[in-house]
Amino acid sequence: MNTEPSKTYFDEMRSADGLVREIYQPYAAWLSQLPEGTLERKSQEAELLFRRLGITFAVYGESAGSERLIPFDIVPRIFGATEWRRLEKGIKQRVRALNAFLHDIYHGQEIIKAGVISAHQVLDNVLYRKEMQGVDLPNQVYAHIAGIDLVRVAENDFYVLEDNLRTPSGVSYMLENRNTMMRLFPELFANHTVEPVEHYPQMLLDTLREAAPAHVSNPTIVVMTPGSYNSAYFEHAFLASQMGVELVEGQDLFVHQQKVYMYTTEGPQQVHVIYRRVDDDFLDPLAFRPDSALGVPGLLEAYCSGNVSLANGVGTGVADDKSTYLYVPEMIRFYLGETPLLSNVPTWRLSESEDLKYVLAHLPELVVKEVQGSGGYGMLVGPTSSKAEIEAYRQRILAEPENFIAQPTLALSTCPTMVEAGVAPRHVDLRPFVLSGKDIRLVPGGLTRVALREGSLVVNSSQGGGTKDTWVLED
Q1: Which positions make up the signal peptide (predicted)?
Q2: pTM, to two decimals
Protein backbone atom coordinates (compact mmCIF):
# COMPACT_ATOMS: atom_id res chain seq x y z
CA MET A 1 0.00 0.00 0.00
CA ASN A 2 1.38 3.41 -0.92
CA THR A 3 2.72 5.45 1.98
CA GLU A 4 3.37 8.62 -0.01
CA PRO A 5 -0.10 10.00 -0.80
CA SER A 6 1.28 13.35 -1.93
CA LYS A 7 3.06 11.60 -4.81
CA THR A 8 0.71 8.80 -5.81
CA TYR A 9 -3.05 8.91 -5.47
CA PHE A 10 -6.22 8.24 -7.44
CA ASP A 11 -7.68 11.42 -8.93
CA GLU A 12 -11.45 10.92 -9.15
CA MET A 13 -11.89 13.56 -11.85
CA ARG A 14 -8.88 13.00 -14.11
CA SER A 15 -7.06 9.90 -15.32
CA ALA A 16 -3.26 9.59 -15.18
CA ASP A 17 -2.98 11.10 -18.69
CA GLY A 18 -4.93 14.19 -17.58
CA LEU A 19 -8.17 13.37 -19.38
CA VAL A 20 -11.47 13.99 -17.56
CA ARG A 21 -13.15 10.75 -16.50
CA GLU A 22 -16.52 10.05 -18.09
CA ILE A 23 -18.56 10.58 -14.92
CA TYR A 24 -17.15 14.12 -14.54
CA GLN A 25 -17.29 15.16 -18.21
CA PRO A 26 -20.65 17.03 -18.15
CA TYR A 27 -19.61 18.90 -15.00
CA ALA A 28 -16.16 19.70 -16.42
CA ALA A 29 -17.77 21.08 -19.61
CA TRP A 30 -20.04 23.31 -17.53
CA LEU A 31 -17.10 24.43 -15.38
CA SER A 32 -15.01 25.38 -18.42
CA GLN A 33 -17.71 27.77 -19.64
CA LEU A 34 -18.11 29.68 -16.36
CA PRO A 35 -17.13 33.35 -16.46
CA GLU A 36 -14.00 34.11 -14.46
CA GLY A 37 -14.69 34.74 -10.77
CA THR A 38 -18.05 32.92 -10.72
CA LEU A 39 -16.94 30.13 -8.39
CA GLU A 40 -15.33 32.61 -6.00
CA ARG A 41 -18.56 34.63 -5.78
CA LYS A 42 -20.68 31.51 -5.33
CA SER A 43 -18.34 30.29 -2.61
CA GLN A 44 -18.81 33.58 -0.75
CA GLU A 45 -22.58 33.28 -1.16
CA ALA A 46 -22.46 29.77 0.29
CA GLU A 47 -20.54 31.02 3.33
CA LEU A 48 -23.13 33.75 3.91
CA LEU A 49 -25.94 31.19 3.67
CA PHE A 50 -24.27 28.91 6.19
CA ARG A 51 -23.70 31.81 8.60
CA ARG A 52 -27.33 32.92 8.26
CA LEU A 53 -28.54 29.41 9.01
CA GLY A 54 -26.16 29.05 11.95
CA ILE A 55 -24.49 25.94 10.56
CA THR A 56 -21.60 25.89 13.02
CA PHE A 57 -19.94 23.45 15.35
CA ALA A 58 -18.30 23.95 18.72
CA VAL A 59 -14.64 23.06 19.05
CA TYR A 60 -13.61 21.20 22.19
CA GLY A 61 -10.52 22.53 23.91
CA GLU A 62 -11.25 26.09 22.83
CA SER A 63 -12.87 28.82 24.91
CA ALA A 64 -16.45 28.25 26.01
CA GLY A 65 -18.90 29.08 23.27
CA SER A 66 -16.20 29.03 20.59
CA GLU A 67 -17.85 28.05 17.33
CA ARG A 68 -16.64 27.64 13.78
CA LEU A 69 -18.26 27.56 10.40
CA ILE A 70 -17.50 24.26 8.69
CA PRO A 71 -15.86 25.18 5.36
CA PHE A 72 -18.11 24.15 2.49
CA ASP A 73 -16.60 23.38 -0.90
CA ILE A 74 -18.87 24.13 -3.85
CA VAL A 75 -17.31 21.59 -6.24
CA PRO A 76 -19.33 18.37 -5.90
CA ARG A 77 -17.95 14.85 -5.62
CA ILE A 78 -19.55 12.61 -8.25
CA PHE A 79 -20.29 8.87 -8.27
CA GLY A 80 -21.98 6.78 -10.92
CA ALA A 81 -25.06 4.73 -10.03
CA THR A 82 -23.40 1.36 -10.69
CA GLU A 83 -20.40 2.30 -8.58
CA TRP A 84 -22.67 3.47 -5.76
CA ARG A 85 -24.84 0.31 -5.77
CA ARG A 86 -21.72 -1.79 -5.35
CA LEU A 87 -20.65 0.32 -2.37
CA GLU A 88 -24.15 0.32 -0.92
CA LYS A 89 -24.28 -3.47 -0.95
CA GLY A 90 -21.02 -3.71 1.00
CA ILE A 91 -22.10 -1.06 3.51
CA LYS A 92 -25.40 -2.81 4.24
CA GLN A 93 -23.61 -6.13 4.66
CA ARG A 94 -21.25 -4.60 7.22
CA VAL A 95 -24.01 -2.97 9.28
CA ARG A 96 -26.05 -6.20 9.31
CA ALA A 97 -23.06 -8.05 10.73
CA LEU A 98 -22.35 -5.35 13.33
CA ASN A 99 -25.92 -5.47 14.62
CA ALA A 100 -25.76 -9.28 14.73
CA PHE A 101 -22.53 -9.01 16.72
CA LEU A 102 -24.07 -6.60 19.22
CA HIS A 103 -27.11 -8.81 19.76
CA ASP A 104 -24.87 -11.86 20.19
CA ILE A 105 -22.45 -10.39 22.74
CA TYR A 106 -25.37 -9.38 24.95
CA HIS A 107 -27.06 -12.78 24.56
CA GLY A 108 -25.55 -16.15 23.60
CA GLN A 109 -22.01 -14.87 22.91
CA GLU A 110 -21.62 -17.49 20.18
CA ILE A 111 -18.78 -15.61 18.49
CA ILE A 112 -16.76 -15.82 21.71
CA LYS A 113 -17.54 -19.51 22.18
CA ALA A 114 -16.41 -20.15 18.60
CA GLY A 115 -13.06 -18.50 19.32
CA VAL A 116 -13.46 -15.87 16.61
CA ILE A 117 -12.97 -13.06 19.13
CA SER A 118 -11.71 -13.34 22.68
CA ALA A 119 -13.85 -12.86 25.78
CA HIS A 120 -11.27 -10.32 26.98
CA GLN A 121 -11.67 -8.22 23.81
CA VAL A 122 -15.44 -7.97 24.36
CA LEU A 123 -16.27 -8.40 28.03
CA ASP A 124 -13.37 -6.36 29.41
CA ASN A 125 -13.91 -3.51 26.97
CA VAL A 126 -14.86 -0.37 28.92
CA LEU A 127 -17.66 0.27 26.39
CA TYR A 128 -19.29 -3.13 27.03
CA ARG A 129 -22.40 -2.68 29.20
CA LYS A 130 -23.09 -5.71 31.40
CA GLU A 131 -26.47 -4.14 32.19
CA MET A 132 -27.55 -5.01 28.63
CA GLN A 133 -27.01 -8.76 28.96
CA GLY A 134 -30.23 -10.56 28.09
CA VAL A 135 -32.10 -7.38 27.14
CA ASP A 136 -34.11 -7.88 23.94
CA LEU A 137 -34.43 -4.90 21.60
CA PRO A 138 -37.03 -4.38 18.84
CA ASN A 139 -35.88 -6.03 15.58
CA GLN A 140 -32.63 -6.97 17.40
CA VAL A 141 -31.22 -3.63 16.25
CA TYR A 142 -28.67 -1.79 18.39
CA ALA A 143 -27.10 0.62 15.87
CA HIS A 144 -30.14 2.29 14.28
CA ILE A 145 -27.97 5.05 12.84
CA ALA A 146 -24.45 4.21 11.67
CA GLY A 147 -21.82 6.30 9.94
CA ILE A 148 -19.41 4.10 7.98
CA ASP A 149 -16.24 5.97 7.01
CA LEU A 150 -14.84 4.96 3.61
CA VAL A 151 -11.65 5.89 1.81
CA ARG A 152 -10.74 5.25 -1.79
CA VAL A 153 -7.26 4.36 -3.00
CA ALA A 154 -7.96 3.23 -6.58
CA GLU A 155 -10.79 3.20 -9.12
CA ASN A 156 -12.62 0.23 -7.64
CA ASP A 157 -10.72 -0.03 -4.38
CA PHE A 158 -12.48 1.28 -1.26
CA TYR A 159 -11.58 0.57 2.35
CA VAL A 160 -13.61 0.99 5.52
CA LEU A 161 -11.63 3.30 7.78
CA GLU A 162 -13.89 3.03 10.82
CA ASP A 163 -17.44 2.28 11.99
CA ASN A 164 -19.30 4.98 13.94
CA LEU A 165 -22.11 3.35 15.92
CA ARG A 166 -22.54 5.44 19.05
CA THR A 167 -23.74 8.92 18.09
CA PRO A 168 -22.51 9.47 14.50
CA SER A 169 -22.81 13.07 13.33
CA GLY A 170 -22.65 15.00 10.08
CA VAL A 171 -25.89 14.12 8.32
CA SER A 172 -27.25 17.67 8.71
CA TYR A 173 -24.25 18.95 6.74
CA MET A 174 -24.96 16.41 4.01
CA LEU A 175 -28.51 17.78 3.73
CA GLU A 176 -27.59 21.45 3.95
CA ASN A 177 -24.77 20.99 1.44
CA ARG A 178 -27.33 19.69 -1.07
CA ASN A 179 -29.80 22.51 -0.29
CA THR A 180 -27.06 25.08 -0.79
CA MET A 181 -25.87 23.58 -4.07
CA MET A 182 -29.41 23.46 -5.47
CA ARG A 183 -29.93 27.09 -4.48
CA LEU A 184 -26.64 28.32 -5.94
CA PHE A 185 -26.50 26.16 -9.09
CA PRO A 186 -30.04 25.25 -10.22
CA GLU A 187 -28.79 24.85 -13.79
CA LEU A 188 -26.46 22.04 -12.70
CA PHE A 189 -29.36 20.03 -11.32
CA ALA A 190 -31.37 20.69 -14.48
CA ASN A 191 -28.54 19.13 -16.52
CA HIS A 192 -27.49 16.33 -14.14
CA THR A 193 -29.81 13.57 -12.88
CA VAL A 194 -28.60 13.59 -9.27
CA GLU A 195 -30.25 11.09 -6.94
CA PRO A 196 -32.01 12.88 -4.04
CA VAL A 197 -31.03 12.88 -0.37
CA GLU A 198 -33.66 15.23 1.05
CA HIS A 199 -35.89 12.31 2.14
CA TYR A 200 -33.36 11.30 4.83
CA PRO A 201 -35.31 12.91 7.72
CA GLN A 202 -38.43 10.92 6.73
CA MET A 203 -36.35 7.74 6.51
CA LEU A 204 -34.90 8.48 9.94
CA LEU A 205 -38.37 9.07 11.36
CA ASP A 206 -39.59 5.77 9.88
CA THR A 207 -36.59 3.99 11.38
CA LEU A 208 -37.28 5.48 14.82
CA ARG A 209 -40.94 4.48 14.60
CA GLU A 210 -39.89 0.93 13.80
CA ALA A 211 -37.69 0.99 16.91
CA ALA A 212 -40.66 1.63 19.20
CA PRO A 213 -41.64 -0.92 21.87
CA ALA A 214 -43.73 -3.70 20.32
CA HIS A 215 -46.98 -2.68 22.02
CA VAL A 216 -46.87 0.92 20.72
CA SER A 217 -48.49 1.74 17.37
CA ASN A 218 -48.15 5.53 17.34
CA PRO A 219 -44.96 6.32 19.25
CA THR A 220 -43.95 9.68 20.65
CA ILE A 221 -40.40 10.36 19.52
CA VAL A 222 -37.90 12.93 20.80
CA VAL A 223 -34.32 13.93 20.00
CA MET A 224 -32.26 14.15 23.20
CA THR A 225 -29.34 16.59 23.13
CA PRO A 226 -26.66 17.34 25.73
CA GLY A 227 -27.42 21.01 25.10
CA SER A 228 -26.38 24.01 23.08
CA TYR A 229 -22.68 23.75 23.95
CA ASN A 230 -22.36 20.35 22.30
CA SER A 231 -20.30 20.39 19.09
CA ALA A 232 -23.18 18.92 17.06
CA TYR A 233 -26.05 20.92 18.60
CA PHE A 234 -26.99 22.44 15.24
CA GLU A 235 -27.54 18.94 13.92
CA HIS A 236 -29.68 17.88 16.89
CA ALA A 237 -31.97 20.88 16.46
CA PHE A 238 -32.01 20.52 12.68
CA LEU A 239 -33.05 16.85 12.71
CA ALA A 240 -35.72 17.38 15.36
CA SER A 241 -37.17 20.21 13.27
CA GLN A 242 -37.02 18.22 10.03
CA MET A 243 -38.78 15.22 11.62
CA GLY A 244 -41.34 17.37 13.44
CA VAL A 245 -40.47 16.00 16.89
CA GLU A 246 -39.44 17.64 20.14
CA LEU A 247 -35.82 18.49 20.93
CA VAL A 248 -35.26 17.79 24.63
CA GLU A 249 -32.53 17.77 27.22
CA GLY A 250 -32.32 15.37 30.14
CA GLN A 251 -34.01 17.89 32.44
CA ASP A 252 -37.10 17.85 30.18
CA LEU A 253 -37.68 14.14 30.89
CA PHE A 254 -38.48 12.08 33.96
CA VAL A 255 -39.18 8.44 34.78
CA HIS A 256 -42.26 7.22 36.65
CA GLN A 257 -43.03 3.53 37.17
CA GLN A 258 -40.41 2.51 34.61
CA LYS A 259 -41.88 4.76 31.92
CA VAL A 260 -40.37 7.93 30.48
CA TYR A 261 -42.33 11.16 30.29
CA MET A 262 -41.57 14.66 29.07
CA TYR A 263 -42.87 17.83 30.60
CA THR A 264 -45.28 19.73 28.34
CA THR A 265 -47.56 22.73 28.85
CA GLU A 266 -50.47 20.29 28.91
CA GLY A 267 -48.90 17.99 31.48
CA PRO A 268 -46.66 14.91 31.28
CA GLN A 269 -46.58 13.02 27.97
CA GLN A 270 -45.14 9.53 27.67
CA VAL A 271 -42.13 9.14 25.37
CA HIS A 272 -41.60 5.87 23.51
CA VAL A 273 -38.47 6.46 21.41
CA ILE A 274 -35.46 8.63 22.24
CA TYR A 275 -32.98 9.44 19.48
CA ARG A 276 -30.25 10.21 21.93
CA ARG A 277 -27.14 12.20 21.13
CA VAL A 278 -25.83 11.70 24.67
CA ASP A 279 -23.12 9.12 25.35
CA ASP A 280 -23.83 6.05 27.50
CA ASP A 281 -21.90 7.34 30.50
CA PHE A 282 -24.14 10.38 30.85
CA LEU A 283 -27.54 8.83 30.10
CA ASP A 284 -28.60 7.86 33.61
CA PRO A 285 -26.87 9.06 36.80
CA LEU A 286 -28.39 6.14 38.74
CA ALA A 287 -26.81 3.55 36.44
CA PHE A 288 -23.63 5.16 35.08
CA ARG A 289 -21.91 8.39 36.08
CA PRO A 290 -23.60 9.77 39.21
CA ASP A 291 -22.27 13.25 38.45
CA SER A 292 -24.06 13.48 35.09
CA ALA A 293 -26.43 16.40 34.79
CA LEU A 294 -27.25 15.49 31.18
CA GLY A 295 -29.18 12.28 31.76
CA VAL A 296 -32.45 11.06 33.21
CA PRO A 297 -32.50 9.17 36.54
CA GLY A 298 -34.08 5.74 36.01
CA LEU A 299 -33.79 5.82 32.20
CA LEU A 300 -31.83 2.56 31.98
CA GLU A 301 -34.40 0.68 34.03
CA ALA A 302 -37.22 1.97 31.81
CA TYR A 303 -35.19 0.97 28.75
CA CYS A 304 -34.40 -2.53 29.99
CA SER A 305 -38.07 -2.99 30.91
CA GLY A 306 -39.03 -2.42 27.27
CA ASN A 307 -41.08 0.71 27.91
CA VAL A 308 -38.87 3.06 25.92
CA SER A 309 -36.44 2.57 23.05
CA LEU A 310 -33.12 4.32 22.60
CA ALA A 311 -31.42 4.93 19.28
CA ASN A 312 -28.68 4.05 19.27
CA GLY A 313 -28.91 1.29 21.86
CA VAL A 314 -26.93 1.29 25.07
CA GLY A 315 -23.66 -0.62 24.69
CA THR A 316 -23.08 -0.14 20.96
CA GLY A 317 -19.69 1.43 21.61
CA VAL A 318 -17.96 -1.92 21.97
CA ALA A 319 -18.60 -2.51 18.24
CA ASP A 320 -17.09 0.77 17.04
CA ASP A 321 -14.04 0.52 19.25
CA LYS A 322 -11.08 0.65 16.87
CA SER A 323 -9.65 -2.59 18.26
CA THR A 324 -12.97 -4.38 17.59
CA TYR A 325 -12.89 -3.00 14.04
CA LEU A 326 -10.23 -5.57 13.18
CA TYR A 327 -12.78 -8.38 13.58
CA VAL A 328 -15.61 -7.04 11.40
CA PRO A 329 -14.66 -9.11 8.31
CA GLU A 330 -14.77 -12.22 10.53
CA MET A 331 -18.16 -11.11 11.90
CA ILE A 332 -19.49 -11.01 8.33
CA ARG A 333 -18.26 -14.55 7.70
CA PHE A 334 -19.50 -15.80 11.09
CA TYR A 335 -22.99 -14.29 11.19
CA LEU A 336 -23.87 -13.96 7.51
CA GLY A 337 -21.81 -16.75 5.94
CA GLU A 338 -20.66 -14.28 3.30
CA THR A 339 -17.39 -12.94 1.96
CA PRO A 340 -16.85 -9.30 2.99
CA LEU A 341 -17.55 -6.96 0.08
CA LEU A 342 -15.59 -4.09 1.63
CA SER A 343 -12.13 -4.51 3.13
CA ASN A 344 -10.69 -3.11 6.32
CA VAL A 345 -7.56 -1.01 6.20
CA PRO A 346 -4.65 -3.28 7.25
CA THR A 347 -4.25 -2.60 10.95
CA TRP A 348 -1.65 -3.30 13.64
CA ARG A 349 -2.91 -3.80 17.19
CA LEU A 350 -0.30 -2.50 19.58
CA SER A 351 -1.30 -4.84 22.40
CA GLU A 352 0.42 -7.53 20.28
CA SER A 353 4.18 -7.51 20.89
CA GLU A 354 5.20 -8.07 17.26
CA ASP A 355 2.80 -5.38 16.03
CA LEU A 356 4.08 -2.99 18.69
CA LYS A 357 7.69 -3.64 17.71
CA TYR A 358 6.96 -2.98 14.03
CA VAL A 359 4.96 0.19 14.67
CA LEU A 360 7.54 1.73 17.01
CA ALA A 361 10.16 1.19 14.30
CA HIS A 362 7.99 2.81 11.60
CA LEU A 363 6.14 5.64 13.40
CA PRO A 364 7.15 8.31 10.83
CA GLU A 365 5.33 6.30 8.11
CA LEU A 366 2.11 5.37 9.94
CA VAL A 367 -1.15 6.72 11.31
CA VAL A 368 -1.71 5.82 14.97
CA LYS A 369 -5.10 6.17 16.68
CA GLU A 370 -6.56 5.74 20.14
CA VAL A 371 -8.88 2.73 20.12
CA GLN A 372 -11.76 4.74 21.60
CA GLY A 373 -10.89 8.05 19.96
CA SER A 374 -13.08 10.00 17.55
CA GLY A 375 -13.22 13.25 15.61
CA GLY A 376 -9.57 13.12 14.60
CA TYR A 377 -8.47 13.87 18.16
CA GLY A 378 -5.55 12.06 19.76
CA MET A 379 -4.10 10.65 16.54
CA LEU A 380 -0.64 10.75 15.03
CA VAL A 381 -0.15 11.19 11.28
CA GLY A 382 3.48 10.18 11.03
CA PRO A 383 4.43 11.66 7.62
CA THR A 384 3.18 15.13 8.61
CA SER A 385 4.40 15.14 12.23
CA SER A 386 7.62 16.63 13.59
CA LYS A 387 10.30 14.50 15.25
CA ALA A 388 9.29 15.95 18.62
CA GLU A 389 5.62 15.07 18.07
CA ILE A 390 6.54 11.53 17.04
CA GLU A 391 8.75 11.03 20.09
CA ALA A 392 6.08 12.39 22.43
CA TYR A 393 3.56 10.01 20.89
CA ARG A 394 6.01 7.12 21.22
CA GLN A 395 6.03 7.67 24.98
CA ARG A 396 2.22 7.58 25.07
CA ILE A 397 2.26 4.27 23.20
CA LEU A 398 4.87 2.75 25.49
CA ALA A 399 2.85 3.74 28.56
CA GLU A 400 -0.38 2.05 27.35
CA PRO A 401 0.15 0.14 24.08
CA GLU A 402 -3.23 -1.61 24.32
CA ASN A 403 -4.94 1.77 23.85
CA PHE A 404 -3.67 2.19 20.27
CA ILE A 405 -3.89 0.78 16.77
CA ALA A 406 -1.82 1.77 13.74
CA GLN A 407 -2.52 1.80 10.02
CA PRO A 408 -0.58 2.60 6.84
CA THR A 409 -0.77 6.16 5.57
CA LEU A 410 -3.21 5.51 2.76
CA ALA A 411 -2.98 7.26 -0.58
CA LEU A 412 -6.47 8.75 -0.28
CA SER A 413 -8.19 9.66 -3.51
CA THR A 414 -8.61 13.31 -4.43
CA CYS A 415 -11.50 15.35 -5.76
CA PRO A 416 -11.49 18.75 -7.46
CA THR A 417 -11.83 21.40 -4.75
CA MET A 418 -12.15 25.17 -4.73
CA VAL A 419 -9.01 26.68 -3.18
CA GLU A 420 -7.37 30.11 -3.30
CA ALA A 421 -5.47 29.28 -6.48
CA GLY A 422 -8.61 27.96 -8.23
CA VAL A 423 -9.80 24.36 -8.56
CA ALA A 424 -7.24 21.80 -7.39
CA PRO A 425 -7.27 18.19 -6.12
CA ARG A 426 -7.65 17.61 -2.38
CA HIS A 427 -7.89 14.38 -0.40
CA VAL A 428 -11.37 13.15 0.64
CA ASP A 429 -13.22 10.45 2.53
CA LEU A 430 -16.91 9.53 2.62
CA ARG A 431 -19.37 8.91 5.45
CA PRO A 432 -22.64 7.31 4.28
CA PHE A 433 -25.39 7.24 6.92
CA VAL A 434 -27.03 3.85 7.37
CA LEU A 435 -30.44 3.40 8.99
CA SER A 436 -31.40 0.03 10.48
CA GLY A 437 -34.98 -0.83 11.36
CA LYS A 438 -37.04 -3.63 9.86
CA ASP A 439 -34.83 -3.06 6.81
CA ILE A 440 -31.48 -1.37 6.21
CA ARG A 441 -31.64 1.82 4.14
CA LEU A 442 -29.45 4.72 3.19
CA VAL A 443 -29.71 7.69 0.88
CA PRO A 444 -27.41 7.70 -2.17
CA GLY A 445 -24.17 9.43 -1.32
CA GLY A 446 -23.29 10.69 2.14
CA LEU A 447 -21.03 13.31 3.63
CA THR A 448 -17.80 13.86 1.74
CA ARG A 449 -15.16 15.40 3.99
CA VAL A 450 -12.21 17.12 2.38
CA ALA A 451 -8.75 18.01 3.66
CA LEU A 452 -8.46 21.61 2.49
CA ARG A 453 -4.75 22.04 3.13
CA GLU A 454 -2.57 20.85 0.25
CA GLY A 455 -1.13 17.42 1.00
CA SER A 456 -3.14 17.01 4.21
CA LEU A 457 -4.90 13.70 4.87
CA VAL A 458 -6.89 14.87 7.92
CA VAL A 459 -10.46 15.57 6.82
CA ASN A 460 -12.13 16.06 10.23
CA SER A 461 -13.85 19.43 10.62
CA SER A 462 -12.35 19.72 14.11
CA GLN A 463 -8.91 19.49 12.48
CA GLY A 464 -9.45 22.04 9.70
CA GLY A 465 -11.27 19.92 7.12
CA GLY A 466 -14.33 20.91 5.12
CA THR A 467 -17.29 19.21 3.44
CA LYS A 468 -18.76 19.00 -0.04
CA ASP A 469 -21.94 17.76 -1.71
CA THR A 470 -21.84 14.14 -2.86
CA TRP A 471 -23.68 13.30 -6.07
CA VAL A 472 -24.79 9.89 -7.22
CA LEU A 473 -25.89 10.23 -10.84
CA GLU A 474 -28.83 8.14 -11.97
CA ASP A 475 -28.29 5.66 -14.80
Answers
A1: none
A2: 0.91
| Of the candidates 442, 436, 443, 441, the residue with the CA atom closest to the CA atom of residue 211 | 436
Q: What is the DSSP string of 232-293?
A: THHHHHHHHHHHT-EEE-GGGEEEETTEEEE--TTS-EEE-EEEE-S-GGGT-TTTS-TT-S
Count of the separate structural domains present in the chain: 1
In a domain, 29, yes or no: yes
Residue 152: its H or E element? strand 145-154
Query: Is residue 356 a part of any domain in this protein?
Result: no
Q: Which residues contact 393 (CB under 8 A, 6 or more apart)?
A: 363, 368, 380, 385
One digit per residue, pLDDT tens: the chain, 475 residues? 232 334 478 999 999 899 999 999 999 999 999 998 999 999 999 989 888 877 765 544 444 445 667 889 999 999 999 999 999 999 999 999 999 999 999 999 999 999 999 999 999 999 999 999 999 999 999 999 999 999 999 888 999 999 999 989 999 999 999 999 999 999 999 989 999 999 999 999 999 999 999 989 999 999 999 998 888 899 999 999 999 999 999 999 999 999 999 999 999 999 999 999 999 999 999 999 999 999 999 999 999 999 999 999 999 999 988 889 999 999 999 999 999 999 999 999 898 899 999 999 999 999 998 887 655 567 888 888 899 999 999 999 999 998 899 999 888 999 999 988 889 999 999 999 999 999 999 999 999 999 988 887 778 776 678 999 999 999 7
Question: Does residue 203 sit within a domain?
Answer: yes
**Domain-embedded: residue 374:** no
* Owning domain of residue 229: 22-345+410-473
Partners of residue 145 on adjacent β-strands: 435
For residues 244 and 236, give the distance between their C-alpha atoms in angstroms, rounded to a whole number: 12
Neighbours of 407 (CB within 10 A): 21
